[in-house]
Amino acid sequence: xxxxxxxxxxxxxxxxxxxxxxxxxxxxxxxxxxxxxxxxxxxxxxxxxxxxxxxxxxxxxxxxxxxxxxxxxxxxxxxxxxxxxxxxxxxxxxxxxxxxxxxxxxxxxxxxxxxxxxxxxxxxxxxxxxxxxxxxxxxxxxxxxxxxxxxxxxxxxxxxxxxxxxxxxxxxxxxxxxxxxxxxxxxxxxxxxxxxxxxxxxxxxxxxxxx
Length: 211
Ligand SMILES: C[S@@+](CC[C@H](N)C(=O)[O-])C[C@H]1O[C@@H](n2cnc3c(N)ncnc32)[C@H](O)[C@@H]1O
Prior knowledge:
Mean pLDDT: 97
Number of domains: 2
Helix content: 40-55%
Oligomer: single chain
Distance between the termini: 39 Å
Bound molecules: S-adenosylmethionine
Largest sheet: 7 strands, mixed
């Protein structure tokens, strides 16, 4: 059994049960290992752009006698996937990197569910998801090591949402009474209201109004 913090534990929780999973930018490989050892996936494609990171994941799988449940691939984003997975996670990278990987990768894996936890620029990731013909089906906000993390899952299907929903999160907004979401909204409101430009102040207002 591999122990995951609140952030990766929530990613595991929201990840659908499937035959083939992929974890892009797996680094230490803990999430990928949990996916197969907790029975969420029969097999997992583990990728990273860094050889050292991929080696860490390989070592972790070997230590848990689970190497036969994984395929390890070195390379950029989803361009290196040897086959189409049923569900793909991308966590712990910046929002712009995740957006770029989605832009290049969604046409290859269209149909797969994506589970994303960007460290930054979450609204940009939401915009990319909708632009590529996906829609968000669930969102969670958790605290780990004193930081807020948003985790979202998306499936194919065209939908239109407003700029305000893109910022606040269409599903998070529905759970705005949740104490963690409230704290997150308050934090975002304060960060944005400290910004100098009018757009930041307008967005801060959206968060304040949702409280
Ligand atoms: C901060 S770690 C996150 C590890 C793990 N996913 C997590 O959430 O704990 C980010 C990882 O993404 C990898 N990465 C960055 N850009 C990438 C890309 N374009 N394709 C694949 N992996 C990438 C980095 O090498 C690094 O190992």
